[in-house]
Amino acid sequence: MEGGRPIQGRTIKTPSQESGHVPSSSPKSLRVSVSDMSRSYFAPDDTDGARNRRPSHRNPLSAAPQWKSQESVAFDKAAALDVSTPPVNAGALSWPRGGASVPGKPPPLPVKGVAEGPLASDGIDAIANAITRRKFKYSVAMVSDFFYPNMGGVEMHIYQLSQCLIKRGLKVIVITHFYGKRTGIRYLTNGLKVYYLPLTPFYNQSVFPAPHTLFPLIRQILIREQINIVHCHQAFSAMGHETIMYARTMGYKVCFTDHSLFGFADASSIHMNKVLKFSLSDISHVICVSHTSKENTVLRASLDPRIVSVIPNAVDATKFVPDPGRRDPSQITIVVMSRLVYRKGIDLLVEVIPEVCRQFPNVNFLIGGDGPKKLNLEEMREKHQLHDRVELLGGVNHSDVRDVLVRGHIFVNCSLTEAFCIAIVEAVSAGLLCVSTAVGGVPEVLPKHLIKLCEPTAGDLLEKLTEAIPLVKTVDPFKMHQEVKTMYNWNDVAERTERVYERINNMESLRLIDRLRKYYGCGVCAGKLFCLVIAFNFLLWRLLEYFWPKEDIELAVDFPFEEYRKSKKQGQR
């Protein structure tokens, strides 16, 4: 419709159109400044719709505030209804039918609570409120250095948990650092919003620890997304530790999930344990993935066991269905899927493979993964002339892991430490018999008839493999799949995590003096240093509140979850 934007059969005019001046540009080239996806993130001259928008060189997180009149802001919010912002995997999104349509653009989404007839200023405000004031049970920010496109146990846990929480009616965003060209704000499946911050990884995909420097950026994101619960992951994540401090200073409820086990004697563990004790001194709640991990975390961080819960990982069993037809009937294939690092016990594998190949001529090895220990495997293969029996796949995308697993009969995990090995759950779900070292929380994961446990030594690992090889013909892959399917489910993990959110949401916020008392007890010298850090962080927060009040921070437009679900159902019919 010329001269305005059609919404449910009505027309919204810009201030310039009200005065009689109509710009020469088409209505579909208008930018929606209220949306963080369209304001300064997409090029303003793109007129091909949201699917073909080109990213701008400007960073949306560093864009200066745009001062606008109240009428202009209301118009932009109303115009957002006519702009599709589909997630990355929703390129073929089918929009609900009905309403006035514009050539080359989807029809507008229906707006409830707006009266028919000419649209007055109060009608614009009603539309703006309908967009920006969506009601969610909780608004959660997942924070970690480790997320997609990097793949691993922590990354899959955050992604799957976020997806299930969204299905349960919670708003979830993810905050991480940029990965290659993946910067700015992205949308993943089901409207999962991800902030890829402009921070360069320093070591092992973790950013350089620089306390207080991220505070203004994290504060802006939490306010504009109207977050009320912050959930940080992994003890190795510097961004997670910093965000815990920022969020607690601002009065947010904070939860932390620990995915790893640490020792108490070596230098790196001593340093990491002191950092963890500082970060978790003022935590609302802690989640561990196994009971062994809980004991380890409670001892390392000197926590009250009553604020620590055990919620295990899970597996999407629908993506790990057995396929015995993919196996070689004349051979027995042993599969290894792991990062090729010392902690994963690759040195044990290097000792065991030549002996297994010598004892069993019909056994081959299929090894997926990458890391510094890959050179050791190549040297072993060259030394014993096992090129035709040991296949090194290199790095494998998680979407291709199932296709590798179903080629095998036995899965081997030889980790030296593990809080919860999700790889063995995926392998059993795919119908493989598992042989694993009995370290950390691994003995808690599967019943004895699905896994053979051994000590982390080459001799014991060889013995268990020798026992498992004759049993592969008696294993029923589909029966194993059904057992795992009933034991582990991401929906159950999300339900239990939501109970933790309910518990911490009802807790009272601590005063600054009470927080300082907790930090003071961290050590004779360290306690005083921690108090100074927290006091400075509190002063920085008050300065930010004075010079950049939260009332001046523009709220983000929430993803239209309800309309997206309806459109998906219509597309499936």
Describe the structure.
The chain has helices at 15-18, 70-79, 121-132, 153-167, 215-224, 238-249, 267-279, 291-301, 346-359, 374-383, 401-405, 422-429, 458-468, 477-487, 490-505, 512-520, 526-547, 561-572, and strands at 5-7, 10-12, 139-143, 171-177, 184-188, 192-197, 201-203, 206-207, 229-233, 253-258, 285-288, 308-310, 332-337, 363-368, 390-394, 410-413, 433-437, 451-454. The protein has 573 residues and is α/β, with parallel strands linked by helices. The two termini are 31 Å apart. Residues 1-133 have low confidence and may be disordered.
Keywords summarizing the entry:
573 residues; alpha/beta; 8-stranded mixed beta sheet; 6-stranded parallel beta sheet; 18 helices; 18 strands; 36% helix; 14% strand; globular
Task: Summarize the entry for a quick read.
The chain has 573 residues and is an alpha/beta fold. 36% of the residues lie in helices and 14% in strands. α9 (346-359) links the parallel β13 and β14.
What are the SSEs and their pairings?
Elements: E1 5-7, E2 10-12, H1 15-18, H2 70-79, H3 121-132, E3 139-143, H4 153-167, E4 171-177, E5 184-188, E6 192-197, E7 201-203, E8 206-207, H5 215-224, E9 229-233, H6 238-249, E10 253-258, H7 267-279, E11 285-288, H8 291-301, E12 308-310, E13 332-337, H9 346-359, E14 363-368, H10 374-383, E15 390-394, H11 401-405, E16 410-413, H12 422-429, E17 433-437, E18 451-454, H13 458-468, H14 477-487, H15 490-505, H16 512-520, H17 526-547, H18 561-572
Parallel strand pairs: 3-4, 3-9, 4-6, 9-10, 10-11, 11-12, 13-14, 13-16, 14-15, 16-17, 17-18
Antiparallel strand pairs: 1-2, 5-6, 7-8
